[in-house]
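Appendix B. Raw example, untouched.
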Amino acid sequence: MSRESAIRLEGRVVEALPNGAFRVELPNGHRLWGFGPRRMRGVLAALAAGDKVILDLSPGDFSKGRIVQIGKQV
């Protein structure tokens, strides 16, 4: 997935899952699986339910996304 083709959306963390993954809910109610890059593992460990995140979604798969920013509004 190239950065130019990624869809960037804002969501809210609903729950922390094992292995550094998170359940994220979008404003329209859609829930998906969010993960972050390894370089953000320390920051991701501090995420809790209710925190805002920005996700990059692939145009072909809306069930999971990469967390690119934390706690910042678009």
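End of appendix B.
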